[in-house]
Write a structure and sequence with these properties.
Layout: H1 3-26, E1 30-37, E2 46-54, E3 63-68, E4 74-75, E5 83-87, E6 99-107, E7 114-123, E8 133-141, E9 148-156, E10 161-168, E11 174-180, E12 187-189, E13 194-200, E14 205-214, E15 217-226, E16 232-241, H2 258-286
Antiparallel strand pairs: 1-2, 2-6, 3-5, 3-7, 4-6, 7-8, 9-10, 10-14, 11-13, 11-15, 12-14, 15-16
Length: about 290
Amino acid sequence: MDKKNKIVLSILIVVLFANISFLSAFCDLDAVMINQDPYPAVPGDYVRLIFQVTGVENPDCGYVSFELLPEYPISFDPNTSSKVVVKSGTFVKNFTSSLIVPYKVRVDSNALDGDNPLEVKFSSGLIEADVFKLKQFNLYAEDVKVDFEIHIKNYDITTNTITFEVLNIGSSDIEALTVDVPNQKNIVIKGANKNIVGGLDSNDFTTADFEAIPTKGDINLILHYTDIIDERRTANEVVSFDPAFFEERKKDEKKRPSSTYVIIFLVVVFIIYFIYTRSKKKKKRRF
């Protein structure tokens, strides 16, 4: 390359960077996060985030690039892009001139309760600009899912009534709890197989009764409930049944009803009265 060409190339590079600097000086981009749904986000579930980029109405910005960085505590589904690129200076009349960028991302299952930092980057000028701005936002997360402990509190063989005890060991209260006993080999339900319990506070318990014929083994239960963000959720639980725990109990021993004692008492009184009156008549005859 001769000296003349080197000079021309140098001039072009200077002009190019001058244009980029000029665009940057007159292009004032900014970004805000305007919505998070649901709020709070649930670790392990999806969350919808909406960002608003202002300043894109200025044609001096050239190409505007915006990206939500796919870093903890979020991740994108495969084949889902984290970047949006638009040409500035184009917008619809009577509508907002800002750029609205929606995302649907998955929250890391280990996300902490409270604020979790997110980072975005945006730039103007070239499509793949080397100079960009970074800005941080917060994703608010809370583990609203609850866990349960299930026990068999009682089985009354005389009425075929089995009582399940449900303990909410989660940190959140729930509403509209329903206990469902699906069809399975270790228990045969007689009548309705669903029991609507209602609300259940954290660290509290409730019971659900079913008329059933259980056999020894595991019993599967399906618990439906509404969490604190009004999301309907399902939990599958298993409880073990052993009939030996409910046999030969004192409370199950047949007791003689009180009416039987009354009848026996009346019969004894009648016999005594009969013997007394008969002996009295015999005495009168002697005289």
